[in-house]
Specification:
transmembrane helix, single chain, membrane, globular, about 75% helix, 5 helices, DUF1232 domain-containing protein
Amino acid sequence: MLEAAKRWARLLKRDVVALYLAARSPLTPWHARVAAACVAAYALSPADLIPDFVPVLGYLDDLLILPLGIWLVIRMIPAELMAGFRAKAAEITARPRSMAGLALVIVVWLTVLAFAGWWWLRQ
């Protein structure tokens, strides 16, 4: 069972890199490119929207939301294109990082904090 979980995690990592490649390819349909860019940016971001130290919720994005997003985007990309992106992703040894994803996480957190401060001051 542990070996199956490790294999699943390796395939997920490969698919994230494949989505990164799909988002940059002009052959990918535009709606799939946008979705792939969003999912890959978040997955490759060095920060999580919900930090892992938050009990239960911290791992919710890693275990449920992110795999669901990857699965949905993969279904948007034609199978033959996705097979090519997966093959290229398997050859890449260094996992790319997404500073856009990091910026998105920071903007979301700053927006939440600003809204909470505004709401608290109105009370």
